[in-house]
């Protein structure tokens, strides 16, 4: 039974073009893919931040001893230590909040990339199955094995298989385990 082909792989092949045009097209396509990936990543991170809002617990203010009020003239000329302390506390709160947001964004980006890597590994497995099935059908129809090997070399199938063998499901699992914990 033939395997269904993904929608992205049903595009018609472009007509023969000069090498410069092909390189330019490849560069343009890569740029579009990078932009699409960055946009998808940002949408994912934004959605995850909405679904998992960052909560910064507010620390209890220190108990202040009762002091005699200071004269108004001294308070207006130099900021009081209480005012400086309040500004520092506010700055620390903002810093803690921003650090938590950065950490959450990194965690969500890592999760997104791991999911994309897992999906890509699945697509590669699918393509290996399609290639194996096509080779089997060609051989069954009497296609010459030497021609098949030459096609594999011309299209870099052997190199791709060696690279894919290096990137196994274990590698994907290892990346997912490295994901920062909540």
UniProtKB/TrEMBL annotation:
Residues 83-92 have a biased composition (Basic and acidic residues). This is SisA. Residues 65-81 have a biased composition (Low complexity). The lineage of its organism: Eukaryota, Metazoa, Ecdysozoa, Arthropoda, Hexapoda. It comes from Drosophila busckii. It comes from the Eukaryota. Residues 61-92 are annotated as: Disordered.
């Amino acid at each position: 039974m033939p395997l269904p082909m993904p929608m992205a792989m049903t595009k018609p092949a472009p007509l023969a073009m000069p090498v410069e045009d092909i390189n330019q097209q490849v560069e343009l396509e890569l740029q579009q893919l990078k932009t699409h990936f960055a946009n998808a990543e940002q949408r994912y991170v934004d959605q995850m931040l909405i679904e998992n809002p960052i909560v910064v617990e507010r620390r209890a203010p220190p108990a202040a001893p009762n002091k005699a009020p200071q004269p108004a003239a001294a308070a207006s000329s130099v900021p009081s230590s209480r005012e400086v302390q309040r500004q520092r506390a506010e700055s620390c709160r903002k810093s803690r909040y921003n650090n938590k947001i950065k950490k959450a964004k990194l965690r969500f980006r890592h999760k997104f990339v791991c999911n994309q890597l897992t999906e890509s590994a699945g697509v590669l497995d699918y393509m290996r199955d399609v290639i194996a099935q096509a080779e089997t059908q060609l051989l069954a129809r009497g296609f010459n094995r030497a021609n098949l090997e030459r096609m594999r070399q011309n299209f870099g199938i052997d190199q791709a298989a060696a690279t894919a063998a290096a990137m196994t499901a274990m590698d994907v699992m290892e990346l997912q385990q490295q994901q920062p914990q909540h």
